[in-house]
Design brief:
The protein is built from seven helices and no strands. With 183 residues, the protein is mainly α. The N and C termini lie far apart (76 Å).
C-alpha cells in the first residue's frame, strides 16, 4: 500500500515546507520536544526583556546594534514554533534512553569546577577536572590521561584569554606562576 498515490499525497501534506524527506518520527506526541519548545520560548523572552533595557543608539540607518538581540530572539522563536509543530505531530525520531551515569559525570564535573573556582584553585585546575569528567561522561575511562589533556588544553586557553585577548580568568597557584614566568 506504500505505492498508493493517496498515501503519497497524504505524506507530502504532513511534511513541513523545509523538509527534504518524509519524517521518520515516532508518530506520537513528544512531551520532551514540547518542553524544549517552552524552554526556547522562555529563552527568547529573556533575550527580548534584556534587550529592552539597552540604550538606543540610532544612526542614519534608523537602528543600531540593539537590533541584534531582537533578531536572535526572533530566530529562537521561529525554532520554538517549528519544535512545537514537530513535537505535536510526532516527527522527532525515537531517542535512546537517558544515560544517567554520563549525565552524572557531566553535572558532577560542572559542580566540582564551580567549587574549585570558588575555592581558589584557578581556571586551569578547574577546567582540567571538568574536561576529565566530560570525557568520562562520553565513555573515556582513562582519568589520569584525560586530566593531563585537560590541563594542557586549559593552560593553552588560559594563555590565549589572558595574554591574547587580555581577559581576566579566575587565578590560582598555577595561573600566578604563569603570570610570574610570562612577565
Amino acid at each position: 500500500m506504500s505505492g498508493d498515490p493517496k498515501n503519497k499525497a497524504a505524506e507530502e501534506e504532513l511534511r513541513l515546507p523545509f523538509e527534504d524527506e518524509p519524517a521518520g518520527g515516532t508518530g506520537k506526541r513528544d512531551a520532551a520536544g514540547l518542553v524544549i519548545a517552552v524552554a526556547l520560548f522562555a529563552l527568547a523572552a529573556v533575550i527580548v526583556n534584556d534587550a529592552s533595557g539597552y540604550t538606543i543608539r540610532r544612526s542614519y540607518a534608523r537602528f543600531g546594534p540593539e537590533i541584534v538581540p531582537y533578531v536572535i530572539a526572533s530566530g529562537i522563536t521561529i525554532l520554538a514554533v517549528i519544535t512545537v509543530i514537530m513535537a505535536w505531530r510526532g516527527q522527532f525520531e525515537a531517542r535512546d534512553r537517558l544515560n544517567i551515569g554520563g549525565l552524572s559525570w557531566l553535572v558532577g564535573g560542572i559542580l566540582v569546577e564551580i567549587v574549585m573556582l570558588y575555592g581558589g584553585t584557578g581556571f586551569i585546575a578547574g577546567s582540567a577536572v571538568l574536561f576529565a569528567c566530560a570525557a568520562r561522561a562520553f565513555g573515556q575511562a582513562t582519568l589520569l590521561l584525560n586530566l593531563a589533556i585537560g590541563a594542557v588544553l586549559s593552560t593553552l586557553l588560559f594563555l590565549l584569554f589572558r595574554y591574547g585577548l587580555g581577559l581576566s580568568l579566575p587565578s590560582g597557584p598555577l595561573e600566578r606562576a604563569i603570570d610570574l614566568l610570562v612577565r
